Amino acid sequence: MRGRGIRGGDVGEKVGGGLGLREGEMKIVFRQLQNAYVHLLQNPFYSPDEHSPPTGRGGKKITSRRFAEDVRRIGETWRPGAGIN
Length: 85
Fold this sequence. Notes:
Layout: H1 23-41, H2 48-51, H3 65-77
């Protein structure tokens, strides 16, 4: 969220820390992130096992340009109270 200001006076369900974010607004963001990840998993050249080994100590960094661009777009276009394009 990079320290963006949030306008005050929002009424409704709040999500963590009293930031004035409604649960429904956050669900939109997480749904878009999930869609981007599912598209990554559908890539036949991506091996999820390389990126989350059974040891749980982390694996390789995800280097997919498309996934990175999707996540960047989601982060840059989302604003509290607005949908995602």
